[in-house]
Design brief:
CATH topology of the largest domain in chain A: Fumarate Reductase Iron-sulfur Protein, Chain B, domain 2
CATH superfamily of the largest domain in chain A: Alpha-helical ferredoxin
Helix content of chain A: 25-40%
Shape of chain B: globular
Distance between the termini of chain B: 41 Å
Largest sheet of chain A: 5 strands, mixed
Oligomer: heterodimer
Number of helices of chain A: 8
Shape of chain A: elongated
Radius of gyration of chain B: 24 Å
Number of domains of chain A: 2
Structural class of chain B: alpha+beta
Order of helices and strands of chain A: EEHEEEEEHHHHHHH
Chain lengths: 276, 637
Amino acid sequence: MTAKNKNSLSVTIRVWRQNGVEEPGRMMSYKVKDISPDMSFLEMLDLLNEDLIKKGDKPLTVESDCREGICGCCGLVVNGDVHGPDDHSTVCQLHMRRFKDGDVITVEPWRIKSFPILKDLAVDRSAFERIMAAGGYVSVNTGAAPEANSIAVNKDDAEEAMDAAACIGCGACVASCPNGAAMLFTSAKISQFALLPQGSPERQRRVLNMLETMDKEGFGNCSNEYECEAVCPKEVKVSNIARMNREFLLANLFGKAEPTAATAHLKSTPDIPEDE
Amino acid sequence: MNLDAKIPAGPIEKKWDSHKFNLKLVNPNNRRKYDILIVGSGLAGASAAASLGELGFNVKVFTLHDSPRRAHSIAAQGGINAAKNYPNDGDSVWRLFHDTVKGGDYRAREANVYRLAQISNQIIDHCVALGVPFAREYGGLLSTRSFGGAQLSRTFYARGQTGQQLLLGAYSAMMRQVAAGTVEILNRREMVDIVISHGKARGIVARNLVTGELESHSGHAVLLCTGGYANVFYLSTNAAACNVSAAWAAYKRGAGFANPCFTQIHPTCIPRSGDHQSKLTLMSESLRNDGRVWVPKAKGDKRTANQIPEDERDYFLERRYPAFGNLVPRDIASRAAKMVVDEGKGVGPTGQSVYLDFRDSIKRKGLDKIRGEYGNLFDMYYQITDEDGYKAPMRIYPAPHYTMGGLWVDYNLMTTIPGLFALGEANFSDHGANRLGASALMQGLADGFFIAPSTVGGYLGAGKFEPVSASDPEFGAAAKTAQERVNKILAVKGKKTPTEIHRQLGNVMWNDCGLGRNEADLKKALKKIPEIRGEFWSDVTVPGADKDFNQTLEKAMKVADFLEFSELLVKDALERKESCGAHYREESTTPEGEAKRDDANFSHSNVWTYAGEGKEAVLNKEPLTFEHIKMAERSYK
């Protein structure tokens, strides 16, 4: 059992409860006692849920998986802060030592039109999947790759690509943006490939198609609030958005917009002439 | 039971090539007529889906997550091995093959491991082409580092996030196939049963985790890429969703389960802070490249680490294993830590940890260099413990991490059920009794990108398939059985939560079947597990309905399977009376306390088959023969 020492906390959780996508939701309050400061925030919610289950009440639906800040599964707004009060951290890495005995803590899901609330604190982020499918890849078949060291990459570019690739797809950038923009997420993938020679051949169609899908999914646009960068657990920089915009401009000015596989059905003429 | 591994004839270097030549091909125009069901979207599942999709097969991928990118491969930190020999330090396919067989303590199949080593280089080529941002040197070429169990530098990495970057690479390749229309992803689905028709795996029943509906899907082959079962210990480095359920369903449908007792305990995890702990966090063992592991020489020394002078510190890995020092394989490092803790020399508030000290490396290489290499791990350590690992040593302790055991597969990665394949951690094949660091990513991608596309194609090309549809009675029967089980769980309406019962099971598994195992403890566990299982079925409580997004029900279903599977794991541990790799039987040791293998009696894989509800599992054995590598005592001294 958790030691009931003098350091243990009691807090009140005010939390969003909603039964399903089309259902109305509301805030509800719960008391949670005997919290060790070494507990993570999600372990505190576990404690609450265990208590609710024992009482026969429905526990909070809340998503998390790795609990080490890499899977991108968890995401809560804690006291108005996306992923909680710690900078550049996922909510699973938040610990109760950040709170005081008697605190009232407000817990809400991501509130974004493009991420419908499935239940309580769980949202549907599949719009990100569709953005990825629109061009978040290098088109190379298994077996077709050249010897790895035949592609030299400037170390600084590789590091910058890695900075962008570190995105965990949690959606915090969207949740923190007053416009509900997914530009940090989208630009991180576009930047990663724009910085690497492997990504160069299809850079134009990539940026055009990914941005088209991003718009279609109902995400907003960037108005330089920098909230996304401030909350990003992996410190992905807004300079990626600038790079994406440059890529977009260049693709529009000089690009030969080619359809991706996703839009290929719209095009009637085959790419390759028939052989004899 | 037929345990023909179908190892191709001929010299080991030629086996894979000649096998690929002998496999039947499916005409490109016919491939889209074959439906392949892939369960799991981690490295193995995503890479298999991408490659099979590129070939033109019609692929459906099932993931219990909202996105394939959440799969637990994402959490692998350190790196991926390959025999490129870029550093010119004497590496070769032969050496990687040798190290992997030796690292696995001679309990893996030679032919499979050789193929893995061969393919390792292609994996790096392909991942670079996919745009995986591996670490590079100033000249622009790839950088490598060394890892536990190897005396050379063959591990490719992307900071401390190699698993993430490789998974995102495989995921992006799969998403390209989603766009191309060859792959369909069904997210938030958990497989609950395999459907067998005319003697072949022809489909699955999956539970939609949002609606609770059971859905039937038919296909021509089923690939289980469902990861490992370390969560049987309750506390492990695995993510919360990791489970044995899909593999266990396959076992109950007739697939052999091999070497379940081979479970790896990882040495460099953040120690637990209390009973509230929901999981343990691993820190990459690459930390052991620069961190020195030690405890105070005196028992119960309560001074802080920095107060303890150099000559009162016991660098026990360096002392006991001078050749490999802090880079001994995981099983050895874990046991050595347990030994000093058991002697009363453990540190930290609980006494259940040892130090991992960077003081000397920081002095030698500079703080910036150490920060550059491991910064994210130090940050992670700080977030969890509130301690600064740059200023005082980190504290670490072993935790269950990876499971070498899994579904038995032949050289084609096919289980004992025709048409049912197992890839990645879900199968048992390549790591023997102990996996070397940076080899899991290699195996997952070898299976998915390169092996399954050939062997699954070979199976489809060679077979005749009866028409099967998801509306056939076999599907209805499987769904009915699954629904009855769900109803039974909901009907108990007891007092204990699934998590409480899972924790009880975990305590038994860790205490009686953990780092060190002996007959008395294992027999005790075999008595306790059925008691806990009884408690589950008489006293579990799951609120809410089944046709709903019900996470407590999901958890209960997983725990119910762990409660059955754990017994098989313990039985296997009891049956294997030797120490080998991660399986350490206290009765089988050398006078110095090192593990003692018994090749005369145990040079085989244990393959267990289901005999029906309430009946004893049947033990079959696949003998292991070593023609190319001389079996020797695994010494790292």
